[in-house]
Amino acid sequence: MRLPAALFLVLPLALAACAKDAEITAIGGSVGKEINRTGCPALAVPADTGDVTLFDPPASRDARAIDVVATLTDLTGACDTTQAANLATTASFRVDARRSSAAGPRDVVLPYYAVVMRGGDQVVSKSVSQVLVHFDAGKLIASTNGQASASIDRAQAMLPQAIRDRIGKKRKAEDADASLDPMNDPQVRAALAKASFELLVGFQLTDAQLAYNATR
Questions:
Q1: pLDDT higher than threshold 60 for residue 165
Q2: Strands 106-118, 42-44: parallel, antiparallel or unpaired by DSSP?
Q3: What is the pLDDT of residues 70-114, one digit of tens each?
Q4: Among 201, 203, 185, which residue's Cα sits nearest to residue 193?
Q5: pTM of the predicted model as reported, rounded to 2 decimal places
Q6: What is the pLDDT of residue 63?
């Protein structure tokens, strides 16, 4: 399945949250906004891929034909910064599902993807896995857990020293650039975008499923 355009509109650049590796803290000029950045990827579930609806029969889109509805939620991550060359992130999530009939036990297999993005618009890697949801007999609701992972080149996630110095520069009120926000500098923003990564996790949907989520 092609990647939905929503993947490229999910996260603000430069805000990542896994560890303290190469962290930058700066106060943005007269704005007074504190900016925290690490080299670890940010995590998100892109719009329209956090839910999946299965129909019976599959081609129907009638509400009475809804068979199973599942939601991917509670996405959290842990970033390993101990490796010299890479930053390794493991993301964990929960899938909550509901079926329309409680008759008998049932297993439902749902595919999900993990995409590493760079700069908000460059796909670095993509993998597809599966999670199994088990319904006990007589139960309409079930939950299970899943994981996704990403490994990012540490050097690509680090900002050049000149940019780090510009962001972290201490300014006094009498300085000529005291009121200038370094985050408004095009060179700083470009460098932050180039060094920013995201790990995006969602259900691997067919075109029909994606269209259903977008229009329901």
A1: yes
A2: unpaired
A3: 999 999 999 888 887 888 899 999 999 999 999 999 999 999 999
A4: 185
A5: 0.76
A6: 93
